[in-house]
Amino acid sequence: MAPTSLSARFQQSVTPASLRAYLAEFISTFFYVFAVVGSAMASRKLLPDAAADPSSLVIVAIANVFALSSAVYIAASASGGHVNPAVTFAMAVSGHVNVPTALFYWISQLLASVMACIFLKVTTVGQHVPTFAIAEEMTGFGASLLEGVMTFGLVYTVYAAADPRRSSLGAIGPLAVGLMAGANVLAAGPFSGGSMNPACAFGSAVIAGKFKNQAVYWVGPLIGASVAGLLYDNVVFPPQAPDSARRGVSEGVGV
User: Fold this and answer.
1) Cα 201 to chain centroid, rounded
2) Which in 64, 84, 191, 224 has the greatest CB count within 10 A?
3) What span, in angstroms and rounded, lies between the C-alpha atoms of 112 and 212?
4) What is the pTM of this model?
5) pLDDT, tens only, 84-131
6) Is the separation of the CB atoms in 188 and 150 below 8 Å?
7) How many Å apart are CA 169 and CA 160, to the nearest integer?
């Protein structure tokens, strides 16, 4: 039974609709990473000491808001607008996507990130592709914990924005996701880099050839994302909870 089930899941992952989803993930992730890494390169180009200049942090945070909101919006109808391996991992853990599909999502996202960084490296001749790094005073465990908490907030927002049980949020949902990402960058950028996205950290590390503390940007985000998805689906808004109960809670908070 297991081989048959695995074969059936794989076949579901290579349908025309699935292939369109992978392409959508590639395109949206490419432009997200292009904007985030490119904004960091631009701030270093324009500012003499970008690492110590608060305005460079604001530049990257704003780029995160605009880029992630747009990337999620343009891919939402085709792939769900994950744009992040951590989001895909949470969806797989929660049972929203099967494992083969999640793996293809990861391949699309990681490949897009690497291609975006290659494009930046080639077109901005002589410019260094920045990588995510933790502050000298922080430990890898502390940085991983920080990335996990930020990714929890991001993925929890993704679940809330995409919840079909809520009224249609239109473009507000992707904007909420982008705003959460930007706020997290402002809060923790100087300490862990504010990645929240393993693909973004991976692509820049591959092109720069620097993999120091790379585990920080995988372990923390994947755990934080999984906890967020499970908590949202099974505790805060479980499927079996009647709409009237949730409505009563919401009305009570409003009062």
Assistant:
1) 11
2) 84
3) 21
4) 0.87
5) 999 999 999 999 999 999 999 999 999 999 999 999 999 997 788 999
6) yes
7) 10
